Structure formats: structure tokens, C-alpha cells
Amino acid sequence: MMKSKKTIQIWTGITYIALVFSACKSLNINQKNENTAVPESYQNSKDTLNSAQLKWNEYFKDENLAVLIDSALANNQELNITIQEIQISQNEVLVRKGDYLPVLGAKVGAGIEKVGRHTSQGASDDVSEIATGKKTPENLVDLYFGLQASWEIDIWRKLRNAKKSAYSRYLASTEGKNFAVTNLIAELANTYYELLALDSQLEIVIQNIAIQTNALEIVKLQKDATRVTELAVRRFEAEVYHTRSLQFDIQQEIVEKENKLNFLVGRFPQTIVRSSQDFNNIIYDSIRTGVPSQLLANRPDIRKAEYELVANKLDVQIARAQFYPSLRISAGAGFRAFNPAFLLNTPQSLIYNIAGDLVAPIINRNALKATYFNSNAKQIQAVYNYERTILNAYVEVANQISKINNLEQSYALKSLQVNALNESIDISTNLFQSARADYMEVLLTQRDALESKFELIETKKELLMSTVNIYRALGGGWR
What we know:
Layout: H1 2-25, H2 56-59, H3 63-75, H4 77-99, E1 103-114, H5 120-132, E2 139-153, H6 158-224, H7 230-265, H8 295-298, H9 300-321, E3 326-337, E4 350-359, H10 366-433, H11 439-473
């Protein structure tokens, strides 16, 4: 009879486990593998030298800019917030690591209990008292101290995969910090060049005010000689007023750019020390773009997306393992007595226990199924995000390569335009003084010259910012 009962229990256990595994096999999902293929080159260039390998203080030669970047890397609040996120992710790894290690704790307890005589335990005490002649105390003291341990055996690597997933997210947060560094350096450099461009524009405006004021005096003399009318004087005065108002607009933009740089550096507004070099004479090194496959190693955002993909794939395995049986072992040992004098008596007061549980869900598993399917959906999202990040990186580099080439051509032509219009100012002024040109020709020539100089500076600024942006797009700056 006992043998038959034991056989039934064994077959029940086998059937139980078989049902669990057959149920898991019925959970079919559509998985997606990532595609990391990229074109072999940019514009048919096979040069593997890459400017992204340069450290930021090797790429940016301006000492004043280097001081700003160095200060920002130490004091920028947003970057420091990101660094704390790394610490949080690192602590999460320690939590997951502890999940698959045994847990050992100490327990000390004390209590008192009064058992009613009309209860089953009270009646038993009465019988014992009659048999032994010893009265059971009405108030029973309960003293205990000992050790307790529990351990979930990681049969299906559920807990180890959780630790690996947390570690991958920690690595992703590290790459997120690197990406933040790259973007911070790029934003600082771009703002610095914008500030230098505004300085140059302000200098041109001041020079133009002097030129226009001188032309106004000539027009006034021409009016006194009745060679022009009051209309010409008023038109020249209006042009001077317009240029002077432009000066204050630029000065306000300079203040805002300085304050933006101070904010990025993490300090209150102060004057930004900057280069006094002629803006149009700033020289930049030639860009080495390498080959597209290098983006996978150089771009922190791509590496971040890769680690997040790894973590999401592990999450799918963890969610699937939730359907399998869990084996937990618990044990304890200590001393227990109703009297402190008997607490350390061995073996009378010694207690211990050990137990093992094998548990798996059979019915009402909708929550586990939802978690499993959500994990797979997030893994597919991570694949698309990884592929999108790679595609975006390539497009950014390709755009900046094209932009630099076109801006260099545009800058050369605009330089010729500025030279031609500068000569036109002198020619139109001389012709006006000899009554061979109308005052409107002088006005329009001066206005065109000012606009062309502004356009030249804007083009130079865009060119310098493109060298910053391609350095960022290639994955430079975080090393």
C-alpha cells in the first residue's frame, strides 16, 4: 500500500513537470535578428584613418576653447546627473548578483503565551499534569535564537541572466555618459564659434558705421553745393541709424552666447575669454572619416543601443524561465526554550529544519504570459532602435561630408564677392563725388557689401560648426 502511494506521488510529479514544459513550448513568439550591415565607404574612400580616434584636446587647437571644455567636463550639471545614473545601474548589478547567492540571517525572538484550558493544547497539558504530577506553567515564555538560510537554486539561469541583463544596462548607461560627453563638447565648440562669429560681425558693423558716417558727411557737402537734395541726406541718415541699431542687436546676441557657454560650464555669467584671431583666418585640419564600419565601435549611442539590445534579449529568457519550476531550499538551526536556564541545553533545546520547495505555475498564468510577450516586443523594439541608430549615424556623417565640401566652395566664392564689393564702395563714392553716379548706387553698394561680409562670416561659422558636427558624428570627443 505504501509503495503504491509513493508511485502515485512520483508519477504526479513527472506529469506536473511535463505539463509545465509542454505549456512553455506552446508560447510561440516572432523574434527578429539585428542587421548591422553598412556601406563599405563614404564617397568611395577606403581610407581607414579616422579623426574620431583623436582626443578632444588634440582635435580642438584653440586653448581658450580647451579651457571651457575641460571646465564643463568637471562642472556641467547634466553630465554629473548622467554619471549618477551610472552609479545607480552599477548598484542594480550588485542587487541582481545577490539574488542567486544564498541568504543567511540571524534571528532572535522572545514571547509569552497563555493557553486556555478549554483548548486542545490546554486539555493536553491537563492530561500531562495528571500523568507526571508536574503542573504546566499558565504563562509560557518562548525564547529563541539561531540562524536561518534560504537559497533559490538557479536551475534555468533565470537569476544569472537577470544579473547579466543588469550588467548590460550598466554598460549602456556608461555609453550614454560617453554620448553625453560627445554632445556637450560639440555644443560647447559650436557655441564658441558662434560667439567668435558675432564678435567678427560686430567689428564689421562698427567699421561700416564709420564708412556710412563718412558718406553722410559727403552727401551733406553735396547738398550744400546743391548737387543733391534733402532726400539723399535723409536716406543716408536712415542707413546709419539702421546699422547702429544692428550693433545693439549683435551685442545682445553676444551676451546670450556668453551666458550659454557659462551655463554649459556650470557657472554664473562672466566674460568669456576667447581668441582675438581674425575669424575668417581660423584654420581647421582636414577631416579623416575612415570607413562606416568604424561607427559601430566609435559611436557611443550605437554601443548603448547594442548593450540595451543584449539586455532585452536576456529579459526574454528571464520571462520564459518564469514558467519553469523554481527550486528553493530553506534551512534553520538554533536554540529554543521556555526558560532562559534551559536555552543552551543540548540536545533538549536544540532545533533545526531543512526543506525544499519545487513550485511552478499551472493555471492563471496570464500575467506571466503578458510579461513574456512584452519582453519579446521590447526586444524587437531594441533591434529596430539599434538598426535606426546605425542608419542615423551613417546619414549624419554623409550629410556633414557633403556640407563641408559645399561650404568650402561657397566660402571661396563669397570671399571673391566681398573683395569685389569692397572695391565697389570706393569706386561708387568717387563716382558720386564727381557727379557720375547717383547716391542710391552708393547706398546699395554699401548695403550689399555689409550683407556679403555677414554672409561670408555665416559661411565660415557654418564651416567650422560642420567640422565640429562631423567629429561628433564620427564618434569623437568621449575618449
